[in-house]
Amino acid sequence: MLRRILHLDIDAFLASVEQLRDPVLIGRPVAVGTGVVASRSYEAKARGVQTAMPLHEALRRCPELIVREGDSRLAERYRQAVATVMRRFSPVVEVCSLDDFYADLTGVPLRVVQALDDTTRAEAERSLVALCRELRAQVRAETGLSIAQGIGSTRTVARLATTKAKPGGICEVPAGGELEFLADFAVESVPGIGPKTAALLQQVGVATVRELWALDVELLRQSFGARGEEIWRRCRGLDDAPVQSTPTLRSISRETSFEPRRDAGSQQRDFLRSMLAYLLDRAASELRQQRLQARTVQVRLHHVDGVRQERARSLPAATERTDALMVVASTLLDELLVRRVLVRLVGVTLTSLAAEQPAQGRLFDDGGKARQRLFAAVDAVRQRHGFGAVVVGAAAGLLGQLPRGPHGFQLRTPSLTK
């Protein structure tokens, strides 16, 4: 079956996020970074501002440049939103860095077939441009971001195709056209060929992919080890590295703070345990929504004297069940509550995330499937009626102590979207 790999890159990602956060910046030269330029808008690029450029040089080239530090948490949420849209088109989405993704569209049923320009044509002649247009429109509608997309038979071809599509375009390399497409790229453009390798190749007169074709694979292997053969294959459109599904999130965190001297009862152990249970329930609900499992639980406390404490512990196996995660979190809280100092903040983080995995069945044990069905039912009710429709486990201790609405308990600092 013909491989079709999609590479997607968010145009001027961090700068675009700043423009979305503050519409006054739209159409103006914007740079994000501290010390050096981490991202710049296309308006700034047109005035000579480049990424990795020192900010003082960027301001010299473009005195009207607007510099922002950026908001990593906001950018992470935008990245998650883009990945969510991509997963509607392919079950295999790989998150490579802050702003680029791969998706394997090989054999994806129905949606790909519907997007083909002409299903009667030979497989090698079919196009996925229509599908990419639909993907681009959904990303724009749901996030406001512009994306560039490249399609090819390998990761290398798809990634280089994206460079031709920027900004906001689509470039598809048809099957059989890989060599013609790759020929005139500079060798340093090929993924896996860094500045040092490119400099060594240029010393022997190799500046483009076409010129690299003249080198024998054995010579490259002797010069660069196993990487030499990989370079040889990539430059011929032969690399078969798969797209590997990865979770967008590295962790899920929820926390809230108190004003100890004003919030009556906030220092009682039972109250703190109930609050931790509620925060963990919010985090576990997000975990299930993202179809992920967590293996490590971290609990943290901040005290009014500035001391911060945290402890983490891993489970034998990753899980998405609130009750299993709470057993660990409750133990960690008990280990942390040893100081006779008021608590200002309590938080929980779920890490070591992985995609949901099927569990091996047991003869006399359902492996927790009854609890999984229970939490699936809870999630369904909350999706329809709001998170506050159901209170789970020890979080019930907050009933009557905090006001509750359709979206849950009203916290003093509802930091529930981290």
SSE blueprint:
Blueprint: E1 5-10, H1 13-21, E2 30-32, E3 39-40, H2 42-45, H3 55-61, E4 66-68, H4 72-86, E5 93-95, E6 100-104, H5 111-115, H6 129-143, E7 147-152, H7 155-165, E8 170-172, H8 178-182, H9 195-203, H10 209-212, H11 217-224, H12 226-234, E9 252-257, H13 269-289, E10 292-303, E11 308-319, H14 322-336, E12 343-355, H15 369-385, E13 404-405, E14 408-409
Parallel strand pairs: 2-4, 7-8
Antiparallel strand pairs: 1-6, 1-7, 2-3, 5-6, 9-12, 10-11, 10-12, 13-14
Helix pairs in contact: 4-6, 11-12, 13-14
Short summary:
The chain has 418 residues and is α+β, with helices and mostly antiparallel strands.
Rounded mean pLDDT is 86
Give me the CATH superfamily of the largest domain: Reverse transcriptase/Diguanylate cyclase domain
Number of strands: 14
Please give the share of residues in helix.
Answer: 25-40%
CATH class of the largest domain: Alpha Beta
Strand order of the largest sheet: 5-6-1-7-8
Please state the structural category.
Answer: alpha+beta
* Shape designation: globular
N-to-C SSE string, H for helix and E for strand = EHEEHHEHEEHHEHEHHHHHEHEEHEHEE
